[in-house]
């Protein structure tokens, strides 16, 4: 008597064959370009790499890099499959203004999913008497964070837009916090996830002012830069008694535009359908949700990512999808 297969067994074999076919052009491993160790990008990206590797059965890991600008270059050239970037540096990279390769339009980096916002905030010692942007004196020594960071790239331009004349200083956030406390800086202009550890440490040790933008200042910045309105919640710092008006720049995960559609689709699906796990990797992933898909107005979407978001109801136009 010949053995027979049940309908369920036949269906399973068909599904297996289709899955194997879908994976035929998948990479055997992948890297995610993140940033320096100790930063949010590195923690988020390394944890996300482990998650995707486990879910897809493909070896993957986070890679230490110089941050958003370098990540655009690494993904564009294919040296990294995935990366993390900020929409401001992404726009400059697309326009050929990435300092890593001036003139090269990095159009082979496509959007995967929204990550979280990076707010821009200003801090000064209370003893300085600086309580507003307009109080910052001409020639003030302002710390803008690590050289080449999103903060160092955009905050000096924002200050110039608001008419502030300053001396530019760079360094790690903790180091700049110490310089502010020692009187070597007048102001620190932060672009980092909140609460910024350096600010939290400062307010324990001394009295500080966390300076918000006026409505007019916020409008000027929104008109000139790829940022969105943002309020720093009063609960973020003990110094704040009410939300502080600010702006923020969205961070997005990116993929090489020529990666297989099914590979990117499954990576996005694994990420977006388990937010609790993403939040366990880093609290900022509370913003890594479907509803924030429309924050991308800079990058073309990877076809695999666009497919998943469209299945959930996202109205992504064809001219924003790579090859669409």
From TrEMBL:
Tell me where the signal peptide lies: 1-20
Question: Which SUPFAM superfamilies did the record assign?
Answer: Periplasmic binding protein-like II (SSF53850)
Listed A to Z, the keywords are:
Signal
Task: Write out the transmembrane intervals.
Answer: none
**A Pfam family hit:** NMT1_3
Task: List, alphabetically, the CDD domains matched.
Answer: PBP2_TAXI_TRAP_like_2 (cd13570)
- Which InterPro entries would you find in this protein's record? TRAP_TAXI (IPR011852)
According to the lineage, what is the superkingdom? Bacteria
This chain's protein is named TRAP transporter solute receptor, TAXI family
Question: What is the organism field in this record?
Answer: Rubrimonas cliftonensis
